[in-house]
Amino acid sequence: MVARETAAEQAHLDEVYAHLDRRRAEVSAQLAKAERAPTAGTPAARVERDALVRMYSERAATLRGVEERLLFGRLDMVDGASHYVGRVGLSTDDRVQLLLDWRAPAAAAFYQATAATPLGVARRRHLSTEQRRVTGIEDELLDTSAGGHPAVAGQGALLAALNARRSGRMRDIVTTIQAEQDRIIRAPLPGVLVVQGGPGTGKTAVALHRAAYLLFTHRERIASSGVLVVGPNRAFLRYIEQVLPSLGETGAVLSTPGQLFPGVDATALESADAAAVKGGLRMADVVAQAVRNRQRVPGKPLRLSVDGAQVTLRPADVVFARDRARASRKPHNAARVVFVKAVLERLARQLAAAQRVELNEDTRPGLLAELRESRDVRREVNLCWMPLTPQKLLTELYADPAKLAAAADGRLSRAERRLLRRDPGSAWTPADVPLLDEAAELLGSDDTAAQLDAARAAAERKAERDYAQQALAMSGAAGMLTADDLLDRYASDAASLSVAERASEDREWAFGHVIVDEAQELSPMQWRLLMRRCPTRSMTVVGDIAQTGALAGASSWGEMLDPYVEGRWHQEQLTVNYRTPRRVMEVANDVLEAAGIPAAAAKSVRDVHWDPTSHSVAPRDAAALLDVVRDELGHLDGGRLAVLTSRADQEWAVGVLRDALPAGSVGDGPTTLDSAVSVMTATEAKGLEFDAVVLVEPAALLAESARGVNDLFVAMTRPTQRLRVLHSSALPAGLGGLRAA
Ligand SMILES: Nc1ncnc2c1ncn2[C@@H]1O[C@H](COP(=O)(O)OP(=O)(O)OP(=O)(O)O)[C@@H](O)[C@H]1O
Q1: Which of 217-226, 482-491, 582-591 holds the top average pLDDT?
Q2: Where is the UvrD-like helicase ATP-binding domain (predicted)?
């Protein structure tokens, strides 16, 4: 019976793959043809060609991405209909459906039907496949009134996925999404949805599948504006980067908080206290004051020489010009034009008097030109109102205690200001990024050249739009796409750039949806920046308040979100831990409990036969560390091991392991998960998972931060199999449940 069922499913699978291959061949031919198309040198033809090339390239990428486990489910409905569920929808030319996209409304029953609420499903079948072969079938009969038994009982697809070795890359969960997760994935697009859940409850997985769902379901609304996915660091982004392509989606921008200001990739480290000061909303006022302080009035009248004559720059004239410029409500660099004009107007009166000419429409241009050419005038006007970039403003603010004190104006204590002190040329940290963004808002573009560029770009865009209009009219496609749509999606200078690429280069880009992972870590200033990127406030925010490590991070969701969407955000909860084995989770929860931190303990679905263990060792005991790590490597079988330490112990541990283990086996930086062993702090390990974790000196980790308990909790909840704790000082409270080795 199993053999017969398997053969029948294999026949259908063959047909689906054959169809996929045909579609791929068609799209490659269309792409090749579009690439070869002559453009006849006109912008219209170029726009049209580039639009087609981009469209076919995106289709080709989608079809390439879905090769593995293309088909994974089948629904047999009570009414006799039957659907195969897979990564993408496929139909024959005469509209016979071969495969239903998992995101289509009809596929929801595959994830949500239960015996109690069968949603019209008689039988749900999970099909496991490997390289185009059916390798397993698992049936659930939901319509018990039919009185039958499952035709085939297979190994639980979910448990098989959960027990698999880790590869350093997150896999999609599309074949085994659970009902509580599916409801979140399919939640409506508008509004802010908060997904709170303990470790391993699938928050990251759910967030990424939601991105794929939204791009599919609301393509016309968000495909051209894109989806932004924010994750904690580059190693994490690398960990998740294959998930969306494997779901057939390429339209998302993945970014760390440090990359949210175009042109800056902030990765430098700083003390948690300094980051906390920078993360507070007070800094918005400090930056605003810093900008105002750069609009200066000289303390006394200044004599300036203009082509042999003398004029006086009077403080009152500068105050007049400054007030007028501020009243324009333009950003600093644009308001500078107003300021300069007003100052020169005042000086022109004096110059006219000095030269004994009347100031009128005929004489004014010449007098203003003389003033502009005077070095004295240029220098003093610049000193009063200098064009500024965000980088320059912030660099000078950090480097000059007097400037910072003046900008802080009582908002920061002396000790806090000292934490911000930085030499010019220091690398940017993630906490600087929202301050740069704040400054950019207030400064605007930094010089007149940029304004000229903008005007030129607008003119070019208009010309291209006109051509695109013609192109559409000629191709008969008007009615489906407007010329602006076409331009927005594919054209302008960057015809060959995707939405994702253009969005990540444009600070003022408004995303159609923003997904924030490990959202509990974001500071109020980081939220302020993100809200700017998402004026529609269509967001999915996932995180766990019990894992907050950053001092400026969240202790409640309302605290962060209410300033922007007061009372208008909605919270969902995930309750099942798919990662951490039950016994490990019990000890991790004990740690929170001992610290009096309330956490809704997520239920672990998995159990393993290893107990989490503790090893009493000497301080910085290299031999003991190597013993345990070598032992773990013996179990690893191609999986991943993390050695988690305090910041202070990290370098020591890397040194010990690099010296003793084969070259290349101890990773670091964004590609660390490509290696078998990663040595990380708890902060760096956030969001990641490993087959095994060796935790070094938990007391040191605990002592390093005011939120050390949360860091310890994060570290302990990373393994899918084994946790081993090495300690020389007493074990912190709550770790009594470890078995002493
Ligand atoms: N429905 C599912 N089917 C298969 N695997 C799942 C499912 N849900 C979650 N997982 C797996 O559980 C693990 C944890 O998921 P994920 O990293 O998304 O959790 P998280 O809530 O973001 O965790 P943390 O807060 O600890 O970072 C991953 O390996 C994920 O693939």
Answers
A1: 582-591
A2: 176-581
